């Protein structure tokens, strides 16, 4: 056998090469979904850990102050004429000293290892004032754009790692913001947003008016007739919740959870029409950092296109932090009554999430 014949025997035929390439392609096709699933599992675990850190920070705050932080803070009188969190926060560019419009997240920054960011917050002005470029207060202290700074651990890695300009900027208090977003919020209760006259109202303490409407037109539990039964841990403006107020038990009440984040117009990731813009910004009170379990939109509880409902980029549901500090992944197919009841903290109605 000459050398040429031996070389020919060592070489692959075209058919053999095609078979090998086909087998490699099949193996890659089989492996790719597993790799993607593993990556999503890791992202979901990171998301869960971030919610757990929020829960720990809230518990540490509560142990120090005997109450959880207020869900939304304003220094104006919360009367029957209502309270517009966006005007309070200076959405039109007006900076009003003392009028805050801030969220519960601002209060727990020191417990999230965000002490420098907390110290950079000017308490003499509002959210818009704290979104300004470097400014100095009357005492000579200098502050720099605290509201538009990212706080660690507030972005779900399955959705994003920061604000993408301009796609996410429209969801902020101002379209000029390039940072300072959040994918996590506090539970306001099983309540319906009151958007009459295009504003979001603050409560005056009565059962017939409030930041969230006590009406049952969107969602209801047959036995409840009082707004006080619908409140969640962060529902009431300018009022704090204590552990004793969570009479349904901290292990039976949502404290935090993932939020929907949609730009204006078009359809969401379930091909449903987007009915409202979800406002971003961890420092901003109201719907930017709160969600309701009581809004059934497009026959869905989560990712339903309503700005006040929870949602996530995880398939099949979203993650929620309970009042006891634990974190649960809740299916979007959960019974509507059960899901609603886990939003309120003192309705006295027993509910159990499926395992």
Work out the radius of gyration: 25 Å
Strand content: 5-15%
Low-confidence stretches: 77-83, 195-223
- Spatial order of the strands forming the largest sheet: 9-5-8-10-11
Distance between the termini: 71 Å
Averaging pLDDT over every residue, what do you get?
A: 77
Tell me the number of helical segments per DSSP (H or I, 4 or more residues long): 7
Query: What is the chain-wise order of helices and strands?
Result: HHEHEHHHEEEEEEEEEH
Number of domains: 1
Shape: globular
Q: How many beta-strand elements? A: 11
The percentage helix is: 10-25%
Alpha-beta content class: alpha+beta
Give a quick account of the main beta sheet: strands, pairing sense, barrel closure.
Answer: 5 strands, mixed
Task: Please describe the topology of this protein.
Blueprint: H1 3-10, H2 14-65, E1 72-73, H3 85-88, E2 102-103, H4 104-107, H5 115-119, H6 127-130, E3 135-136, E4 142-143, E5 184-189, E6 192-193, E7 212-213, E8 254-258, E9 290-292, E10 317-322, E11 327-331, H7 336-341
Notes on the structure:
Strands 9-5-8-10-11 form a 5-stranded mixed β-sheet. A two-stranded antiparallel ribbon has the order 1-2. A two-stranded antiparallel ribbon has the order 3-4. The model is unreliable at 77-83 and 195-223 (pLDDT under 50). It has 7 helices and 11 strands. It starts with a helix and ends in a 14-residue tail after the last helix. It has 355 residues and is of the alpha+beta class. 23% of the residues lie in helices and 10% in strands. It has one domain. It has helices at residues 3-10, 14-65, 85-88, 104-107, 115-119, 127-130, 336-341; strands spanning 72-73, 102-103, 135-136, 142-143, 184-189, 192-193, 212-213, 254-258, 290-292, 317-322, 327-331.
């Amino acid at each position: 056998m000459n050398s040429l014949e031996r070389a020919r025997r060592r070489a692959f035929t075209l058919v053999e090469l095609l078979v090998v390439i086909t087998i490699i392609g099949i193996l890659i096709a089989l492996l790719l979904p597993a790799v993607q699933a593993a990556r999503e599992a890791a992202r979901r675990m990171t998301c869960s850990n971030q919610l757990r850190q929020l829960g720990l920070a809230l518990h540490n705050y509560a142990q120090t102050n005997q109450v959880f932080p207020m869900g939304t803070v304003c220094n104006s009188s919360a009367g029957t004429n209502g309270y517009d969190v966006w005007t309070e926060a200076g959405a039109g560019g007006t900076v009003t000293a003392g009028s805050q419009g801030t969220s519960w997240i601002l209060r727990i920054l020191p417990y999230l290892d965000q002490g420098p960011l907390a110290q950079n917050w000017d308490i003499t002005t509002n959210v818009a004032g704290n979104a300004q470029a470097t400014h100095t207060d009357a005492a000579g202290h200098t502050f720099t754009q605290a509201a538009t700074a990212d706080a660690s651990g507030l972005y779900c890695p399955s959705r994003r790692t920061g604000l993408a300009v301009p796609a996410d900027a429209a969801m902020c208090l101002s379209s000029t913001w390039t940072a300072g977003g959040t994918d996590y919020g506090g539970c306001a209760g099983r309540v319906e947003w009151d958007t009459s006259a295009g504003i979001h109202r603050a409560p005056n303490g009565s059962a017939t008016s409030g930041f969230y409407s006590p009406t049952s037109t969107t969602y209801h539990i047959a036995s409840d007739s009082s707004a006080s039964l619908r409140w969640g841990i962060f529902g009431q403006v300018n009022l704090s919740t204590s552990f004793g107020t969570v009479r349904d038990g901290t292990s039976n009440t949502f404290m935090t959870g993932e939020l929907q984040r949609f730009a204006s117009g078009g359809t969401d990731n379930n091909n449903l029409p987007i009915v409202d813009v979800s406002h971003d910004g961890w420092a901003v009170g109201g719907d930017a950092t709160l969600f309701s379990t009581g809004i059934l939109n497009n026959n869905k509880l989560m990712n339903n296109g309503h700005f006040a409902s929870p949602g996530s980029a995880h398939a099949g549901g979203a993650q929620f932090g309970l009042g006891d500090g634990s974190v649960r992944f809740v299916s979007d197919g959960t019974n509507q009554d059960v899901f609603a009841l886990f939003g309120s903290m003192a309705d006295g109605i027993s509910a159990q999430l499926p395992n």
